[in-house]
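[Automated response] Your request has been received and processed.

Submitted sequence:
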Amino acid sequence: MQAIRPLAPGGAEVLELRELPTPTPGPGQVLVHSEAAGVNFIDVYQRSGQYKTARPIPLGLEGAGRVEALGEGVTGVSVGQRIAWVNVPGSYSTHVLVPAERALTLPDGVSSVAAAAVLLQGLTAHYLAYDTFALRAGHTALVHAAAGGVGLLLVQLAKLRGARVIGTVSTEEKAQIARQAGADEVVLYTQQDFQQAAREFTAGRGVDVVYDSVGAETFEASLRSLAPRGTLALYGQSSGAVAPLDPQQLAAHGSLYLTRPTLGHYTLTRAELVARANDLFALVARGALNVRIDRQVALAETRSAHEALEARSTIGKIVLLPG
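Generated structure:
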């Protein structure tokens, strides 16, 4: 098989295609010939060494393809079946060993490319909108990075749940995209104060929830954008880690709630993983959830994908095509 497995952390130059033995599935595993793999910022963190992982570095956490072989004891999956997966390290590869308990059946209405583009970010948006703070009609949500991968999906899911949405973006181009996704109000944070906009949009009350993937640069103003008993869901830190917090600040700003959710804790069981994934796939299949793909890149060109992601020059998902 061919795979991107850097021997050590480094810049994008370490992303060289390597020939490796094609693995044999063990008990409880399926071997999949990958047709698409998603590129996420966590891959950049792992490649650079910011997040520690095994070596060679098994880049890539999500993808979709066809089952080639079954390991001992595997049931419910058949050779030739189309499946998708998430949180399976080593997905930048032509062949991937997927635990059968993580294998997700793909419906006919969802392509492998769409599945690889939506799973990790879509499941994140799903748990945020459905469970971390269960949106409903009457709620107002502030979504940071509203034109980003999770942000675009989160805006759409929030609107499907009946909420009003304020999105923050960095450029007018991204503002147009956020509006197309359904955002009721869009703030260019490079030109406007999003805390002030949140207050103005809610007649001074503040928003019910802030979904914050930015971290250090937005955290304080996000807290101050909340209504009393509002929730700050800090699910990322693209601008850096948040400084230690005195819990008294939560009282001072309105008896607020603060949570730091992760996908793993919202897909603890196979039943929960399958339910969320099937909900996503159904939305995609009927056209209720638009999956924006910025570009599709051959596996051998993974370096260009990482460079584009790090340059913040993408709008939507980058998908690798292992071939």
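Summary generated for your ticket: The mean pLDDT is 96. The chain is about 30% helix and 25% strand.
If you did not submit this request, please reply to this message.
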